[in-house]
Design goal:
Pfam families: adh_short_C2 (PF13561). The protein is of the alpha/beta class. A 7-stranded parallel β-sheet has the order 3-2-1-4-5-6-7, with helices on both faces.
Length: about 240
């Protein structure tokens, strides 16, 4: 029986790879993004349903939920580094804007989307949120938001468990082939991140996609409220 899957931030990088994994399993997949052209193009390329939605907007996520029937899997993949604050702002105002941006993109997108669709989640369903190694090491406002995501996930797991819904976070280490670093990754930095791993390679979007696919599988029904680290053995406490 085909599953219905919703993936926020599903137009590129990790979100797109997760969408492709579920599509390969014949799931009906909905992907969201903020830019109409990108959403339309990506959905057409993959054979998914594309919905333009800012997952940080209560009005937009409510409208998104209204379009959906029963939902088997929700993947909260929307997120990213904070938007640069305007140079016109006073230092503390700029700092506040940075933190608001991090929390909105990396925590509130998951909170709002999950709340909007939780009544549609089927028994045996799954909520999977994409976290980061930055939650435990020098992550600044971005890492703090991802740490809050893990705390929120634990409480949401307890709330949804009576319905038979599991909730887990995938804490990703360095993943190559995404636009996360916005072109600012240097060769030295990349080399240092790879050197920290035990297997001496960067992670791939497929590594995260296959972990997400497993967490939504029958074999993972007793895994909930957890943060699953996928970082090649990189130390998470430095």
């Amino acid at each position: 029986m085909s599953r219905t899957v919703l993936i926020t931030g599903g137009t590129s990088g990790i979100g797109r790879a997760i969408a492709e994994a579920f599509i390969a399993d014949q799931a009906e997949v909905f992907i969201t993004g903020r830019h109409p052209d990108t959403v339309e193009r990506t959905a057409k390329e993959m054979g998914a349903h594309g919905v333009v939605c800012d997952a940080g907007s209560p009005e937009r996520v409510a409208a998104l939920a209204d379009r959906l029937g029963e939902l088997d899997v929700l993947v909260n993949a929307a997120g990213g580094l904070p938007e640069a604050a305007s140079d016109d702002l006073a230092p503390l105002d700029g700092l506040l804007a940075q933190w608001h941006s991090s929390l909105s993109q990396n925590l509130l997108t998951a909170v709002l989307t999950t709340a909007s669709v939780q009544e549609k989640l089927t028994g045996g369903g799954s909520v999977i949120s994409i976290g980061s190694i930055g939650a435990e090491r020098r992550g600044g406002s971005y890492g703090a938001a991802k740490a809050a995501l893990a705390a929120w996930n634990a409480s949401t797991s307890a709330e949804l468990a009576p319905k038979g819904v599991t909730c887990n976070v995938i804490s990703a280490g360095f993943i190559a082939g995404t636009n996360f670093f916005q072109g600012r990754m240097t060769d030295d930095r990349r080399g240092a991140l790879v050197a920290e791993t035990h297997n001496k390679r960067a992670g791939t979007v497929e590594d995260i996609a296959q972990t997400a696919f497993f967490l939504a599988s029958p074999g993972a029904r007793h895994i909930t409220g957890q943060t699953i680290h996928v970082n090649g053995g990189a130390f998470t406490t430095r």
